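Before relying on records like the one below, remember that each one covers exactly one chain. Contacts with other chains, cofactors or solvent are not represented anywhere in the record.
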Amino acid sequence: MNIAVFCSAADLDARYTAPAREFAELIGRGGHTLVWGGSDCGLMKVMADGVQESGGRLAGVSVGFLAARARENADEMVIARDLAERKAQLLARADAVVVMVGGTGTLDEATEILELKKHGLHDKPVVLLNTAGFYDGLKAQFQRMEDEGFLPLPLTSLVFFAEDGLGAMAYLEESAGLR
């Protein structure tokens, strides 16, 4: 399975890096491919290292202005023209999407993926990995959107909130018929 992961390129503390590493190892040991932003720094590097060291493949999609930070030993690396093309390529190459902790770029990616799913432009499973309660506020906001009629679909048909990597992987494998 090709699993797109949206996450931060920032260096973060162990409460975020340790669970990311565990999830990366699940991807690698499962023989899956990490489809990610291609960066070799921060949480993106933690993910790439863990997947690669555990036997998985790396398919990166970087962007021109970040190409100097792209991982050199990825199995595949594409340089997109801009962020919009990058997001489109990441989604096109993925069988499933996992959103991990991150900043405004990650939030932008998450909301675009969910908007496209809402309109039926893809039907890939989407997981928000809620490490250390990072997305508790967003989960509450999405629930309010559903409760007040702003979502035309049930929230559960758009996104699955996982509290850890094991839960995320179980959901993805079940969605793909691997369990």
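The first strand starts at residue 2 and ends at 6.
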